[in-house]
Amino acid sequence: MPYKDIKVQKEYQRKWYLRKKQGLPTKTVISLSEEERIKRRRATIQKACKKKRFLRKQAKYDKLGDICRICSRKQYNLHAHRKDGKPHKEFHALTNEEYKKELDSGEYVHLCYRCHKGVHFCLDILKLTWSEIIKRLNK
Q: How confident is the model at residue 29 (pLDDT cuts 50, 70, 90)?
C-alpha cells in the first residue's frame, strides 16, 4: 500500500506483523456475510436492469416517436407494434444492439392501447393488411 507518510506505513506494517505472529487474520478488509453478499448482488443486478429498461425505452421513443401513429395522441406507455401482424421476437431476450436493429428495420409503429387493440381486431378478425388499415383511416 502506498503511504505518503513513512511513519504511518511503518506502524501499519508493525501491527500487521504482530497480528500474523499471534495467528490473527491479517486481512484489513472485513469480509461480508453470505446474506450481505447476496443482498449487495441483488441490488447491483436490479440497478443494472433498471438502467437497461431505461435505455431500451429511450431507444424505442427515439426510433418510433412518442405519438400514437393512428390517433396522434401523445402518451407515455405506447406499444411497439409490428406492421405485418406477425409475432415479433421476444424483446427481453435481445441485446441492446439487436433491439435497436429490430426497431430500425421500419417494421414497427407506436400505438396506444386502444389503437393497438383495434389494429389486432382488423388484422386477426377482418383479415386486413397494415396498408389497407392505413388506407381506410386516411379516407
A: low
Q: How far apart are CA 81 and CA 103, in angstroms?
A: 10
| Per-residue pLDDT tens digits for 72-111 | 888 778 888 888 877 777 777 788 888 888 888 788 888 9
Inter-axis angle of helices 130-138 and 113-124, to 10 degrees?
120
Q: Please classify residue 51 by burial: count the beta carbons closer than 10 Å to its beta carbon, then call 0-12 exposed, 13-18 middle and 19+ buried.
A: exposed
SS3 assignment, position 139: coil
Residue 81: closest CA among 126, 50, 114: 114
Q: Which residue do the cell numbers 393488411 mark?
A: 129
Backbone angles phi, psi at 109, to 5 degrees: -135, 160
Cα–Cα distance for residue pair 53/96, rounded to 1 Å: 10
Measured between alpha carbons, how far is 25 from 19 in angstroms, rounded to an integer? Answer: 7
Pull the grid cell for residue 53: 429498461
* Cell, residue 36: 450481505
Q: State the CB neighbour count (10 A cutoff) for residue 77.
A: 7
Residue 124 and residue 130 in contact, taking contact as beta carbons nearer than 8 Å: no
